[in-house]
Amino acid sequence: MKYVPTIGIECHVQLKTKTKLFSEVDNDARGKEPNSCVSPVDYALPGMLPRLNGEAVRLAVLAGRAMNCEINAESRFDRKHYFYPDSPKGYQITQFYQPIIGSGYVELPDGEKVRIEHAHLEGDAGKLTHFDSYSLVDLNRVDTPLIEIVSMPDIHSAKAAHDYCKELWRLMRFADVTYGDLYNGNMRFDVNISLAPEGSDVLGTRAEVKNLNSFRSVERATEYEIKRQSKLLDAGEKVVQETRGWNDDAGKTTGQRSKEEAKDYRYMPEPDLPPVRLSAEFIEKESAKLPPMPSEYRKRFKGIIANEILEILLDYPELTNKLNEIDQKYVKNMSNLFTSVLLAEEKSAEYLNDLPSVRDLNELAAMNEKKELSSTATKEVFLRLFDPQMKGHGTRQIAKELGVIQENDLGALEKIVDAVLAKPETQKAQEDFRAGEEKVIGFLVGQVMKESHGKANPSSVQDILRKKLS
Amino acid sequence: MKIANRKVTAERLVRDALDKAKHFADYNIFTFLNEEGALKKAREIDAKIAAGEKVGRLAGVPYALKDNFMSPEGDTTASAHILEGCASPITATAVEKLEAEGAIMIGRTNLDAFAHGSSTENSYFGPTLNAYDQSRVAGGSSGGSAVAVALDIVEFATGTDTGGSIRQPASFNGVYGLKPTYGCISRYGVVAMASSTDCIGFFTKTPGDMDLLMSVANGKDSKDLTTLDNYYHDSKLKKAKRIGVIKEFDNDSVDKNIKKALKKKCELLKSKGYEIVELEMPALKYALAAYYIIVPAEVASNLSRYDGVRYGFRSKKSEDLDALYSETRSEGFMPENKRRIMIGNFVLSSGFYDAYFLKAAKARTLIVEEYAKAFEKCDFILTPVAPNPAFKLGEKTNDPVAMYLEDAMSVPLNLAGVPGLTIPAGKNADGLPIGLQLIGPRRSDKSLIEFSKELTE
């Protein structure tokens, strides 16, 4: 039978705040000793009370607006109870009843929309490492601020699941609320998948694949689940409602625990935190700081930048936003430099954080279009704009220092050509050319280039030579 | 309040307090005596005074600290086995403020474990005895603190009041006890019982001392987001005219002597020109039920952190994770703790939340409104603190509901967040103290304390 998959995705995004969601301890534990970024609030000493990090609230507002979501003027925190050593308080502080981010939607590259049900702020859990006879607890990640984004079940293929997750990642990066480092778990996806016979309006039983941390694993796990569930249904068996884990090496999902034995989280309003009240002015002021989002750029650059190039650029908000600032007539030229030169550099990640000024880039593109810089020279000058020794000098000065500005002054070029043609060693070539031997033109152009110390524009030189030798 | 000055040294005050504490050891007041630390601080203050340096408003004043306030002086146990050996790396904001003014903690006082109880009989360290009758309870949960002040060991003691834990032991032992407006004093560093009703307060011998302590301890704290702005100093003293009495509290369950004491105070007020207004407050009948749903829910949640993983007691039988949790918690908690954890988890469990917790939350709103209405008709309310004076040790330990009923007159204030001050109101025929409770609207703490002076003859 043919089945239609229905997919909803929950995504956890770690926010890039300096400090944790409820304490003043460093939120960035990368490369730090286990349990070194933990305050008494985080490890739940008696008598400790959470202090809400205002920056996390601000980033949540930005994230929400990036997804076209309503921001709720009042939101509250709740406690979600469970016993596990990764949760020192014995509960997670989350927003169960009144989340900060209301409904909205994400527009995929193909124009399809996936609705957002809501998104809420919450604290992350610690990390456990299991050994044979014991386990170690690292609380560094406890109460790292997260937003959990809950989509509506608007996704119907593995490809769309992939695209949705990737687009979410881009939105969060454009909104600049997360480092977006998937490898380090900055974004994690839980995918809910159910199948229903084509034409049926009743949804099937769903399975949830938890903790996927790459777009590819989202796509593969979804594909796997669709196949697995199809087989079960074809065989007349039932899909069990359960949580499943994804084994990337084996390319398989496996059952973890079924919802029947799911825990009762005993949600309760968090009495230690007052409600979060946001004024319309605050929300407006903050969202005004957002750059255009990828869907807007797709409209803006349509017909200027090829789709494939633009989709690459959209993975780098720094580049896309820069393109948006430079002179529109140079956008295409610059987009090529960005994708084919900058991104090919070993240090590109570093470069992204320190892009050249709009003025320098405009000038570079202008010099290239006026043929003052050959394409090779353009690339060279472009890279020098990132060179700490040179970048302050400005595009033209750098080009001068490198001696790569092409001579385009036809009068001056003619003089050089005349001088070269007067040289004895070029006489034979001139005769050969006149006799119809086309390829010796290359030799002559080379001589002129040599005479001009490489600054002449070769195509102009060839034009002059042809005129003079005809 | 006796403070250190050129006439009396801080060391003298502290030595006297420590001697008295030891003299009254059989009352089981203290879980820890801070002999070394207190004497060291006293000498420092004396040196400052001798050098002519400025000292704080509480210089050299010995005080007792309820053992659920965190500070590095002595382990903070909350009289609970599960917190045994828990040395705090931090200091509670309230303690910090008192000590900054020169107050000296001479010992930590006994309480019902985690402040769950009305008699201090639920302490892992055994009950504290009543200051006036050793066969009777001290009240609770701040029993040790009340008795420490009543026996004149210290000038004042700290307490916490979640449903009467300051006011009731104050009344059982004949001292002043204030539960301020919710949010007036920071809860940071105080072992939580029920976050939405917990209040920090004091036991003193006079209203003047209470005012001084409040002016020291109150105020906004960035470490406790539920603290109110610093209203205490700015609050204009209210000129009271009408005093309310609650009709529903005039019933047969209330001890005759307490009724008589209330009547007597009303007569006194009338003679001073105040008008006595009888209030009907029907919503208060929901208070006890709502309280024993909301509080256990928050208790169960707040006690989730005690799992034997990071601090305090861990059972020797913790061979796997489930055993670590279940054995540590069954050995570490007292029966009353467990009772409240079970009730709390029950009312929060899915399918019951709406029927219990949500309904209780609605009842709470009704109670808040009931007080608001009452304070349109009067300035303050005068009621009993508890229906009976101090009961016998063991009298109610096997009947938790009877014990809970003793709280009916004290818990409504905690649900509404309004302040209540216990004032001594004489003794009954057995020589047991009787206390009355003066209640004011939110933020009226200072006026309430000031007005209580009118009730002395």
User: Largest interface by residue count?
Assistant: A-B, 30 and 44 residues
SSE pattern of chain B: HEHEHEHEHEEHEHEHHHHEHHEEH
Give the number of DSSP strands of chain B. Answer: 11
Strand order of the largest sheet of chain B: 1-3-2-4-6-5-10-11-9-7-8
In one word, what is the shape of chain B?
Answer: globular
What would you note in describing this structure?
- The complex is a heterodimer of chains A (470) and B (457).
- With 470 residues, chain A is of the alpha+beta class.
- Helix content of chain A is 36%, strand content 18%.
- Chain A is built from 16 helices and 15 strands.
- In chain A, α11 crosses α12 and α15 crosses α16.
- The model of chain A has no long low-confidence stretch (mean pLDDT 93).
- Chain B is an alpha/beta fold and 457 residues long.
- Chain B has a single domain, classed as Amidase signature (AS) domain (Amidase signature (AS) enzymes), CATH 3.90.1300.
- Helices cover 36% and strands 13% of the residues of chain B.
- In chain B, strands 1-3-2-4-6-5-10-11-9-7-8 form an eleven-stranded mixed sheet, sandwiched between helices.
- In chain B, α4 packs parallel to α5, α6 packs antiparallel against α14 and α8 packs across α11.
- Chain B is globular.
- The chains are: A alpha+beta (470), B alpha/beta (457).
- At the A-B interface, loops of A face α8 of B.
Topology:
The complex is a heterodimer of chains A (470) and B (457).
Chain A (H helix, E strand, L loop, with lengths): L2 E12 L39 H13 L7 E2 L2 E4 L9 E4 L9 E4 L5 E11 L3 E4 L4 E4 L6 E7 L6 H17 L12 E11 L9 E6 L2 H20 L7 E6 L4 E7 L9 E2 L6 E2 L2 H8 L6 H7 L6 H7 L3 H9 L5 H11 L6 H5 L5 H12 L5 H10 L10 H8 L7 H13 L4 H8 L6 H11 L6 H12 L1
Parallel strand pairs in A: 11-12
Antiparallel strand pairs in A: 1-9, 1-10, 2-15, 3-4, 3-14, 5-6, 6-9, 7-8, 10-11, 12-13
Helix pairs in contact in A: 2-3, 6-8, 10-11, 11-12, 13-15, 13-16, 15-16
Chain B lengths: L9 H14 L6 E4 L1 H16 L11 E5 L26 H8 L3 E6 L33 H8 L5 E6 L5 H7 L2 E4 L19 E6 L2 H11 L24 E5 L9 H16 L3 E5 L7 H16 L18 H12 L2 H14 L5 H24 L2 E5 L15 H6 L5 H6 L3 E8 L5 E7 L5 H8 L5
Parallel strand pairs in B: 2-3, 2-4, 7-8, 7-9
Antiparallel strand pairs in B: 1-3, 4-6, 5-6, 5-10, 9-11, 10-11
Helix pairs in contact in B: 1-2, 4-5, 6-14, 8-10, 8-11
